[in-house]
Amino acid sequence: MTNAMPLGYRIVGPCSRERRLVDYDRAFAAYADCDDLAQIEREGFLSPFQYDDAIRSRVVRPDGTLDVRGFTGPHWSRYLWADIDDDGNIDRATASARRLVAWVLERYQVDESELLAFFSGSKGFHVGIPTSLFAAEPSDMFGRVARQVAEDIALKAAVRLDTAIYHIVQPLRAPNSRHGKTGRHKRLLTVDELMQVRPAAIVERSAEPLAFDLPETPAADERAVADWQSACEQTNRKTEAVRSRDTDRTELNLATLEFIRDGADEGDRHRLLYSAAANLAELGCPPRLAHALLTESALDSGLPPADIRRAIENGIKKGGNPE
Description:
Blueprint: E1 7-12, E2 19-23, H1 24-33, E3 44-46, E4 50-51, E5 65-66, E6 75-76, E7 79-84, H2 90-107, E8 116-119, E9 125-130, H3 142-157, E10 172-173, E11 187-189, H4 191-196, H5 199-205, H6 222-246, H7 254-262, H8 269-282, H9 287-300, H10 305-319
Antiparallel strand pairs: 1-2, 1-3, 2-5, 3-10, 4-6, 7-9, 8-9, 8-11
């Protein structure tokens, strides 16, 4: 447990609505309790991470509305989240969530009651692994390391993840909130329910919210700590690789550099993202690195993750690096 990162943001309504500064733990607990203040009959989102006072510099109105575009400050989370959505196929998504949870329970010293598993209210699952297992500390690299750990776990469990949630300020649907399209709730599942209940029945149960108590915090696990450290080392190597490529920037178009640094305004963002991806591909940039360089700025610009992936992939093909 840490009080060093007490702040977060909350969105009431669609995720395109304004983000407002909140005490993160109190907001999460209100959603868990189905408190009237949480307004669970509406769509609701919370920040994917918690922040220190540095986030206050992004307050733009007296009501606590934030402009978080480009924020790169220290952050942390009580859970390492895995967002599992197998192209809208609930049977495959359920099987994937089961494999991931089984792998985590086998590898780490964690009780199943200490995990959080939710049906998202639409077509997938959010699984929360306590970061206390990893002895993970706040930093400006926390989200990148978390993504690396999650990707390593997913690879070993043969699961495909949506990695947009590891961006520092990408919204994550709040527990018990109602999904805007399906009308169903993001509902907690016990591990037994996840493993035993038919996918169709899981979907049916999400017609109603379910209040729950927050789990106990487990102690650090030796294997988990080692996995986090390994991910830190991998992330540092990737960062250095990006920096080394940045030493010769004169060949990149100015628009590409500006998009990576600042993103783009609505109306230009699709075009500029596509052009930046094509420019990177022209210079031989590997697809994975192109996604790493462009995705955060594109998310900050307000583009949906699916649109970002498609624009980058199309730009890479245009630039002559389709691999």
